[in-house]
Amino acid sequence: MSTKEKSLNFIEQIIEEDLKNGLSQEKLHFRFPPEPNGYLHIGHASSICLNFGLGLKYNAPVNLRFDDTNPSKEEQEFVDAIKNDVSWLGYEWANEVYASDYFQQLYEWAIQMIKSDKAYVDSQTSEEIAIQKGTPTAPGTNSPYRNRTVEENLELFERMKNGEFEEGTHILRAKIDMAHKNMLMRDPIMYRIINKEHHRTKNQWHIYPMYDWAHGESDYLESISHSFCTLEFLPHRELYDWFLDQIVENDKIRPKQREFARRNLSHTVVSKRKLARLVSEGHVTGWDDPRMSTISGLRRRGYTPASIRNYADTIGIAKRENLIDVSLLEFCIREDLNKVAPRVMAVLDPVKLIITNYPQGQQEWLDAENNPEEEIMTYRKVPFSKELYIEREDFKEEANSKFFRLTLGKEVRLKNAYIIKGESVIKDEQGNITEIHATYDPESRSGSGTEASKRKVKGTIHWVSIPHAIEAEIRIYDRLFTDENPDGNKEVDFLEFVNPASLEIVKGYLEPSLKNSQEGDKFQFQRLGYFCVDKDSREGALIFNKTVGLRDTWAKIDQK
């Protein structure tokens, strides 16, 4: 086996084997089939990258198919959000299709199955059906309605379609085997009555196909060659194939279902039902809250398409489920933003610094590099004056030899500016420092080429000129859940692990170059982390979201 073959994941190996056994590469066709009942999350991102990535690798079409078979939960808002997310990740679909496109054909095939005595209308309650279905170790028992005549089934099914019955009064079931070892094969439901308006077909239908009936048949109608889904659908594969057996024609390609494992992300949940609870119960502000594991939440927080694609590529495709530490996702966004995000100065916990020997009323504009990773270095101007803000933690009145920031009697460099020395402090009645007084060396300006500018000092701190500073709201986010696997204990409601300190809002002071920043603009606040402009920003009222810190501090906290 070649090195190239060894590097293939098991999904690619399946495709390569099919090609080797005679499947024409022109027949390859993939799909991504979300249900539009919520926003996509980071787990979906892996599936998107898998299917669309295979499309790119094999130059094959990929359909975006909406599994819109339950009008009780689906909305156009979710359809639009899903399309936006897939496009934002950088992928183009060959066809935008819907399970609802096939409702008439699915209905006609169901009629065909009734006529072949392979489907029947059951009129039991859901509770009766659950009891009658048996257990994994005990066979089920036949429904008392299982032997209805073909004519009676056809009449009832037609009346179900026409909206003559209330929800829950009748269902259509496939007639397979109530003693089958796979419980999904024990006369599975094909249709149920839902008397609600569909976001596309409106009130045309009162019966809606179940996932197992609609999915494989939709794959077949679209000539999908490989239908990849997550591991929980492995038991469904037998039913997928049984349903296809009822309708396939020899001259058409038959879809193949294969499964891969979910790769769950620590400190998050990725169940759409649970994400919906977080929204509806007010634990977050919406589906795109930057604390959410949704793609739209990650985008709003400042994640880039490249970082998410790189994350999906790094975790790869596997056959066994495991929990991926969220620090890997954070590493991917740091790596990407380090290359593209401009460096700027901002102070989030300010204390006033007065340079006592700097001329009153004087100001100067200093050169500051935008990003040291750039191939061709670019610069911006930042204003400097007598009164500055620095971070409170960058000063200690008394410090040991390992503290390399500002303290009394020692020198430190102000980034892009001068070397200063701490001289004295002013405190309020409670003993809190309100002002730090320092002196500067006028010959030490960065980049000036003087001997003083080349003098080595152990620390460099950032700052913002008070007369020029822009005030902004800074939203600092932490893990939404305190437990790495909030979904792991089925005896405990996952909401018990919601982190009460997942959002802190502070007032920050920024250099004036950020004044005209637009929604989505991304920056590195030097020495603080990566931040992006939030959509709630308005002219004169900027809001920044913290995307991620410069290093993984959470791992250190976890170890304590």
UniProtKB/TrEMBL annotation:
Its EC number is 6.1.1.18. Pfam families: tRNA-synt_1c (PF00749), tRNA-synt_1c_C (PF03950), tRNA-synt_1c_C2 (PF20974). One of its GO terms (biological process) is glutaminyl-tRNA aminoacylation. The keyword Transport does not apply. GO terms for molecular function: ATP binding; glutamine-tRNA ligase activity. InterPro entries: Gln-tRNA-synth, Gln/Glu-tRNA_Ligase, Glu/Gln-tRNA-synth, Glu/Gln-tRNA-synth_Ib_cat-dom, Glu/Gln-tRNA-synth_Ib_codon-bd, Rbsml_bL25/Gln-tRNA_synth_N, Ribosomal_bL25/Gln-tRNA_synth, Rossmann-like_a/b/a_fold. Residues 460-534 form the tRNA synthetases class I (E and Q) anti-codon binding domain. It comes from the Bacteria. Residues 341-441 form the Glutamyl/glutaminyl-tRNA synthetase class Ib anti-codon binding domain. The keyword Protein biosynthesis applies. GO terms for cellular component: cytosol. Keywords: Aminoacyl-tRNA synthetase, ATP-binding, Cytoplasm, Ligase, Nucleotide-binding, Protein biosynthesis. Residues 28-338 form the Glutamyl/glutaminyl-tRNA synthetase class Ib catalytic domain. NCBIfam families: glnS (TIGR00440), PRK14703.1 (NF011291). Belongs to the class-I aminoacyl-tRNA synthetase family. PANTHER family: GLUTAMATE--TRNA LIGASE (PTHR43097:SF5), GLUTAMINE-TRNA LIGASE (PTHR43097). This is Glutamine--tRNA ligase. It comes from Myroides indicus.
